[in-house]
Amino acid sequence: MPEYKAPLRDMHFVMDEVLDFAASYEAYGLEDASPDLVNAILEEGGKFAGEVLAPLNRTGDEEGCHIDDGVVTTPKGFKEAYQQYVDNGWGSMTGSTEYGGQGLPFSLGLVISEMVASANYAFSMYPGLSHGCSAAISAHGTQEQKDQYLSKLTPGTWTGTMCLTEPHCGTDLGLIKTRAVPESDGSYKITGTKIFISCGEHDMAENIVHLVLAKLPDAPAGTKGISLFIVPKFLLDANGEKGERNTLKCGSIEHKMGIKASATCVMNFDDATGYLIGEANKGLNCMFTMMNHARLGTGMQGLCHGEASYQSALVYAKDRLQMRSLTGAKEPEKAADPIIVHPDVRRMLLTMKAFNEGNRALTYYTAQLLDQAHYSKDEGERANADALLAFLTPICKAFMTETGMEVTSLGMQVFGGHGYIREWGQEQQMRDCRIAPIYEGTNGIQALDLLGRKVLGSQGKLLSAFTKQVHKFCQANEGNSQFAGELAKLNQLNTQWGEITQSIAGRAMQNREEVGACSMDFLMFSGYVIHAFMWLKMAIVAQQQLAAGTSEEDFYKAKVATQSFYFKRLLPRAQAHVEALNSGADSLMDMTAEQF
Amino acid sequence: MADYKAPLRDIRFVLNEVFEADALWQSLPGLDGAIDAETADAMLEEAGKITSQTIAPLNRSGDEEGAQWNAGEVTTPSGFKAAFKTYAEGGWVGLGGNPEYGGLGMPKTLGVQVEEMVYGANNSFALYPALTAGCCLALDAHGSEELKQAYLPNMYAGIWSGTMCLTEPHCGTDLGIIRTKAVPEADGSYLVTGTKIFITGGEHDLTENIIHLVLAKLPDAPAGPKGISLFLVPKFLVNEDGSMGERNPVNCGSIEHKMGIKGSATCVMNFDSARGYLVGEVNKGLNAMFTMMNYERLSIGIQGIGCSEASYQSAVDYARERIQSRAPTGAVQPEKAADPIIVHPDVRRMLLTMKAMTEGSRAFSTYVGMQLDISKYADEPESKKKGEDLVALLTPVAKAFFTDVGLENCVHGQQVFGGHGYIREWGQEQLVRDVRIAQIYEGTNGIQALDLMGRKTVANGGAFFKVFAEEVRNFVTENSADAMAEFVQPLAKAIANLEELTAGVIERSKSNPNEVGAASVEYLHVFGYTAYAYMWAKMAKVALSKAEADEIGFYSAKLGTAKFFFQRLLPRIHSLSESVNAGSESLYELDAVQF
Ligand SMILES: Cc1cc2nc3c(=O)[nH]c(=O)nc-3n(C[C@H](O)[C@H](O)[C@H](O)COP(=O)(O)OP(=O)(O)OC[C@H]3O[C@@H](n4cnc5c(N)ncnc54)[C@H](O)[C@@H]3O)c2cc1C
Ligand SMILES: Cc1cc2nc3c(=O)[nH]c(=O)nc-3n(C[C@H](O)[C@H](O)[C@H](O)COP(=O)(O)OP(=O)(O)OC[C@H]3O[C@@H](n4cnc5c(N)ncnc54)[C@H](O)[C@@H]3O)c2cc1C
């Protein structure tokens, strides 16, 4: 049976040593999150994740959710665990203090989310969706709506959902058919069918707050005619408590490849009472303002499954005896050597380790920008952070989930045949991870967003804002002889990033198809370069610690060595993406649909 | 969910047009009388029918229902039994079997096509006859005349089925450490005792008897792989007159709950002084297994092709129908609310990757099948030897590359469906779950790569590789016409690159044996892409020559896909080669505790 232990040492390494969260907390007036408090929170979070949530992961998968006449039951233990989660205040960490939250930094919230989600991803979706829902209400709701709903959502007494997708559309939300008809009292009657609604119905909280995209009767066609509504499962009574049942119902739940403990619901709204949030016809905008946060969370799913899979694979590789090392027996007293002696098993483990830790550094780096965008007192700094977030978010979402798939697949492979058997948990990690490249905007759509809207759409400004950071970093470390080769490589890729963008921009002026033809390879290239940046940051910190003398030599040497593996064995992949995207759109577009 | 349709047109393209299989068959003594183009074609047609109409419809329900275990008895999903009967009666189980014992004696070149169709239709189902065929191969090659006569006819006829019992709880790769024992009896038989795990088709209700081939050790056997013998252990003993006798004490203790191939029973088999008969020589059991491994490995690799093809068929259908967003260059179907997603470049990227890799795989499996036929039937020593060398070299490439590529393809096929790809009902997620096993069993892909790099390449100083490289270079020289330039030029570079890599690894491994294992997986992938470049150049050549007769755009689609392969996929070799050249050093900087 797999176990999950929060990788506290690695987390602290990135938070404290690589990114210095403490300093930015001070700068943003978040000094309440003192190092001692942070320490204690991580410690407790690790315990909760490892002891309460992780044991429900496999059983949740086996049992799944069940529906009976519109009522959804979550797997055994989920309800109790959720209550504990709420009671311990895990859900309210980053919420506004006005509504019962603790006002702690987003970055700290994400570190805790990493633990929760690594221990049990399906569980983490219930509070995860609530956070998204709260963020939208917080950004766009009226004061009254905030008072009514945030006070319940923030502590986790109620949960939330996001109802975008319909049977005939997921990417192209301009096509939605759900209708909202205004009532004389200012509310709306919502009618329509939403599908794939995560946590749309369940038994863990007394009320569920749906955020629903719908069209007003006179709305313009397409994406500019979509409005956002709050549609609670139970209407609020005069005291703001759960009142009358609203006319919406879960029609069925999906049978899926994974995340089986997360209820994916068909939601039927039948003249349900709803309340407009934000401006009419600006619903998509409202959704997108909180997308950065949600997408980063989904990207982190790749890291979470990757970490859980790695922990099990590592234990197994040290334990499983099979064949002798190519350079002679390493444990001659045993029948065979542990498989970690074999180069190919190391290749798999190191690939997992390098991607996971690179993804963790990238997640925390981006999370720090979320703090900055929200809490910095300097408007310019906030704008800078927003710009970097706009650029990094699609990369985080797609690159971390693509690599998450690779990592979880390798984590199965290390187990040989046992990886395919349910009992060991490795195959579940891969099945659960597989949703992440799909929802919250498919990875193909992230790539279009990155290259089309963000990079080309800003005439390259968003890209250069980031490449400048990389450039500065390379300059600052110019004299570093140990990593001179790696720094030069990073610098070269950083320059190449600009060049390929120029070249795509030129071609795209002639042919709009060039953007979509290059986008996925561009995104993957970007991810590899950013990981190179993250790995050098980490390696240089480790180098300094080693030079200064440390009792944790193994730990820091491993960072340097993993960096070296990354540069030698994984980073070369970036070039294949360059070659593919340089080949242009013709080979994709020449054939007719019938010829496929 | 699209219905699976056997891709007969594409199969015929490869078999008849690209490789001119009939000419090969007619040139091989022993095959020339057994098969001709017409017979082969009729068989393909029939195989297409039975797979599409009888076997494919049981795929989803088989996954939902799974094999069930109850007190040692295993029930296969509804419909499997009847379908297996139909399949067996069609003679398909014994398709490649020895005609002396009732097999049909068909060439592997044809066999691989049928295997692809069966896997494409239903992986779980496919494994029952596949294991039986594998078992027969070993028996035919190493069994005594008596054993062959007693068992082969009923197995070829699908009245009995077969298994391969190698794996034990503590070992799968390292079979030298198995613990199952065989104790000789006075009558020349043996009593076999031990536990085998993960035994595909170890117990089921499809056939009246199940014949296990079991690896075990004699009491006085030397330690390690040189002390392993192979035994035939039937579920029911067979009387002298061929009738079924007593139940042998071999029992299925449980079946595994798995990620996929749920309709295939994966069994824990307990042998408790079960009566067995030695197959081949004492202590030569692993050799006996390995002689038929090439066939088996190719076959398991083909699972990757079958799944890819099935996933692709559904994905293309879906991409033509699902409307979502407008084409970047303006509405293509303005009368509809949006355009079909096949207009989007990124969707095409996924579909074309699937198409190029699946068709490349199919051509390559046919090519390796040809080499198997040549090595088996050729009477001229030189071509026989060449066939054997190529089989030895290319089998691990085929097994691992088909299945690695198969996973990538099925993941793309799922992605084309967006959220619906994750839902069971559409079948795309099942293919990802089903195909995932093929990278693991029949020797993990890591072990295939070691076999390619170590045993097949470094150990002989690259001799087998030279045979392959020479053939490719000859092709390049012979096809230097302008129209072929966009294919043969990158092919020439790719083969030169592979030669360089090969020489590099051979050299480095002299001073450090870890270099072999450090390079192996990426090396195998470079090999795979290079081999597919050769396949696609061959296919492009045929397509160019038929451009004039191209009424439905079939041949121009082949050319379009070839272009895509050379421009978008072949470049992956450069990154992979860099990783190979990085050597083993960065794999060994960490101590085990530092991971
Ligand atoms: C388990 C699960 C949970 C979910 N949870 C929620 C939820 O809580 N709330 C919610 O609203 N939705 C949810 N979804 C829906 C999810 O967000 C959508 O499935 C996703 O956005 C894709 O939409 P789609 O399925 O309609 O795919 P489509 O939009 O039909 O896309 C199909 C394929 O076409 C590609 N494509 C489409 N348009 C373009 C284009 N213009 N250019 C290039 N490629 C294109 C896509 O990338 C994809 O590969 C969930 C889905 C699942 C499976
Ligand atoms: C569904 C299913 C069906 C199966 N059917 C059958 C069957 O019918 N009959 C049968 O006998 N078996 C069967 N197997 C077993 C299968 O063949 C083995 O699982 C496989 O050979 C791997 O062995 P293992 O599981 O012991 O992994 P291990 O040998 O423990 O390997 C674990 C990992 O270590 C790696 N490794 C091991 N040694 C080395 C080395 N020297 N160098 C580099 N890497 C190394 C492997 O590549 C793998 O990644 C089946 C398994 C499954 C899951």
Describe the structure in your own words.
- The complex is a heterodimer of chains A (596) and B (595).
- Among the domains of chain A are: 136 residues, Butyryl-Coa Dehydrogenase, subunit A, domain 1 (Orthogonal Bundle); 124 residues, Butyryl-CoA Dehydrogenase, subunit A, domain 2 (Beta Barrel), CATH 2.40.110.20; 130 residues.
- Helix content of chain A is 57%, strand content 11%.
- Chain A is built from 20 helices and eleven strands.
- In chain A, strand 8 and strand 9 form a beta hairpin.
- In chain A, helix 14 packs across helix 17.
- The radius of gyration of chain A is 24 Å and the shape is globular.
- The two termini of chain B are 44 Å apart.
- The longest helix of chain B is centred in the C-terminal third of the chain and has 36 residues.
- Chain B is α+β, with helices and mostly antiparallel strands and 595 residues long.
- Chain B has 19 helices and eleven strands.
- One flavin-adenine dinucleotide (FAD) sits at the interface of chains A and B.
- Chain A: Keywords: FAD, Flavoprotein, Oxidoreductase.
At the fold tier of CATH, the topology name of the domain at 8-143 in chain A is: Butyryl-Coa Dehydrogenase, subunit A, domain 1
The helix count of chain B comes to 19
Number of helices of chain A: 20
Regions of chain A with pLDDT < 50 over 5+ consecutive residues?
A: none
Separation, N- and C-terminal Cα atoms of chain B: 44 Å
Helix content, binned percent of chain B = 40-55%
**N-to-C order of helices and strands of chain B:** HHHHEEHHHHEEEEEEEEEHHHHHHHHHHH
Integer-rounded radius of gyration of chain B: 24 Å
Radius of gyration of chain A: 24 Å
Q: Per the principal axes of the C-alpha atoms, what is the gross shape of chain B?
A: globular
Helix amount of chain A: 55-70%
Major sheet details of chain B: 7 strands, mixed
CATH class of the domain at 8-143 in chain A: Mainly Alpha
**Uncertain regions spanning at least 5 consecutive residues of chain B:** none
CATH superfamily of the domain at 8-143 in chain A: Acyl-CoA dehydrogenase/oxidase, N-terminal domain
Quaternary organisation of the protein chains = heterodimer
Domain Acetyl-CoA dehydrogenase-like C-terminal (chain B): 468-591
Keywords (chain B): FAD, Flavoprotein, Oxidoreductase
Domain Acyl-CoA dehydrogenase/oxidase C-terminal (chain B): 283-452
Protein name (chain B): Acyl-CoA dehydrogenase
